[in-house]
Amino acid sequence: MLIKHGINSGFGAIYMLASSPVLRRQQFLIRCLGDYSDQNTNTHQKRMQGIKFTSGASLEADAENVLRAITPTLDPNRHKGQAGKIAVIGGCREYTGAPYFAAISALKIGADLSHVFCTKDAAAVIKSYSPELIVHPVLEESYGVRDDEKRIISGKVLAEVAKWMERFDCLVIGPGLGRDPFLLDCVSKIIKLARQSNVPIVIDGDGLFLVTNSLDLISGYPLAVLTPNVNEYKRLVQKVLSCEVNDEEAHEQLLSLAKRIGGVTMLRKGKSDFISDVKSVSIYGSPRRCGGQGDILSGSVAVFLSWARHAIRDGDSSISSKNPAMLGSIAGSALMRKAASLAFDNKKRSTLTTDIIEYLGRSLEDICPVR
Amino acid sequence: MLIKHGINSGFGAIYMLASSPVLRRQQFLIRCLGDYSDQNTNTHQKRMQGIKFTSGASLEADAENVLRAITPTLDPNRHKGQAGKIAVIGGCREYTGAPYFAAISALKIGADLSHVFCTKDAAAVIKSYSPELIVHPVLEESYGVRDDEKRIISGKVLAEVAKWMERFDCLVIGPGLGRDPFLLDCVSKIIKLARQSNVPIVIDGDGLFLVTNSLDLISGYPLAVLTPNVNEYKRLVQKVLSCEVNDEEAHEQLLSLAKRIGGVTMLRKGKSDFISDVKSVSIYGSPRRCGGQGDILSGSVAVFLSWARHAIRDGDSSISSKNPAMLGSIAGSALMRKAASLAFDNKKRSTLTTDIIEYLGRSLEDICPVR
């Protein structure tokens, strides 16, 4: 059940002290027993004791312990919103499934509120998928806007998003966004606004198309995570490094890419997920490649990034020096892969994204029980 | 399984005679046996015998007994509508989930008919969530109405609602209403109409935003229940009492607030639900704070308030001197908390509002079996 990562230096590196796989497994089991045997003590504090962060080289990390470290305990004294408020920017005339998958995944993991900002055409459809989402029909595509109106409409779109921005713990930008130039221009302004407000952003899908052509939008922003698939990664490498993808030196190239873009966290999706600063999240997973799995991942990373940030703000000493974007990427990748694996065990070739989403809750509960 | 309330004087206070928890529990079990051992007698009358209402101080009430007292027996001689006709006023371009949750919850508890009055944009979406609801696309937001049309449109909206008003047993005003000034102006008129018709109203969400700024709308109306969450309560306290929330004297402040507004019942949601006249409904519940739970509560209170009113009208001597708004609030809070608890046991962190709604029926059946 261990998810292993080779480690490089960077924002922070996660290491386990034990070097033998058998010993590590034993220690892991002991930690699990220690964490949950006493139901009446502060389980979160106990979870933290299980994670050994130290400096060193070529050791391994335990993604499950990262999940335990950043997932908040459920406290009845808390009120709506305190477990996370996520917003997805995406959904247009053509695409409605992707933003739904990202937004509902955030709720299924444990966020309290999940919003979608999309075009009018997309809104009614996304709303109809689930009454749990708050869907704002505010984006506009070129076909509905005259040239002489563009400045005013763009201002209105930005104002609609701006009035909510401070409330969000993380944005997911890109699922089902499409490539309409006017819409992407508005989204560029939304990204700038998020940066000004210090709101973390996860960029996927057509959001990656946008930032690949406008790297300044995210360059130097440590609260940005980019989650490219094979094709999106290829375009990024070509654009930023002016070369082709080199799978023999995959991790080095990923680090170069993150460095050249400037301070962002890269999560390259594939057979194993490669994360800058952490070599890979490689176990669990499913051989099924149905569309939409990347959207689950983006929503998951958004929740865990938010939770990691809160845990660090709360003064959690074991992760205080860590980059929340990196912790969120590890946790999101591990949970998504575990849920995909469980769904595939059950549904085999007919596994769809909706099936995987239904396993997010159980997957997190297996790793990090609420009590 | 007992839900306990400390009691203050007010419209009416519910007391159990027994003071020892063990003795109370025994009496409760004896009552249960007494209620349901003879299946062929009038079970409703027998249920009522179990509840001891008397005056006194610092005693406790049993919310489950309130539920039993006001829930009508299912009599095959009754016809459609007699178990309750609820209407939700809410649903706009931005919000569609909230009115759906309130309206479907009313049906799942046992109301016969559940209506929603919303904007045209929201209507098709809310209809698509469920064929069980009757959805009227009659409300209008400012963006669709010219200034010179407002008086006529406002009159039409009111006429559309007015022709149904006498048929409703309770209105829920606010879930997903939004804050459009023209729409809120129309809703103010709907509230006035409900008062004229003596139709009870439960006010939540943006309905609370409206009445906080126009207290006259509900002041002095004993058939109004206000169900504020932490932020809505804060705004009410600031506006009405010109001070901040004082959690050390929470119940006294709640009573002051209800008194200053004038004769309404307050249900302050939180870790425990505080109800004016009754100290708190504090057991059951879930630590999950996903958006939408308040909408279930508002729909639940609406049904139980209606049922309590009918039970009192039918001459039920054990509750004849009680305030139906208070009884409905106790019952709605207790049932919602029980359903949330059962859903959380099953779904843990991934519990969504839809999951809780699915447990409303079982929760009521556990407390108050149909035979």
From TrEMBL, chains A, B:
GO terms for molecular function: ATP binding; ATP-dependent NAD(P)H-hydrate dehydratase activity. The keyword ATP-binding applies. It catalyses: (6S)-NADHX + ATP = ADP + phosphate + NADH + H(+); (6S)-NADPHX + ATP = ADP + phosphate + NADPH + H(+). ATP binds at residues 269-273, 285-294. PANTHER family: ATP-DEPENDENT (S)-NAD(P)H-HYDRATE DEHYDRATASE (PTHR12592:SF0), ATP-DEPENDENT (S)-NAD(P)H-HYDRATE DEHYDRATASE FAMILY MEMBER (PTHR12592). Belongs to the NnrD/CARKD family. Catalyzes the dehydration of the S-form of NAD(P)HX at the expense of ATP, which is converted to ADP. Together with NAD(P)HX epimerase, which catalyzes the epimerization of the S- and R-forms, the enzyme allows the repair of both epimers of NAD(P)HX, a damaged form of NAD(P)H that is a result of enzymatic or heat-dependent hydration. This is ATP-dependent (S)-NAD(P)H-hydrate dehydratase.
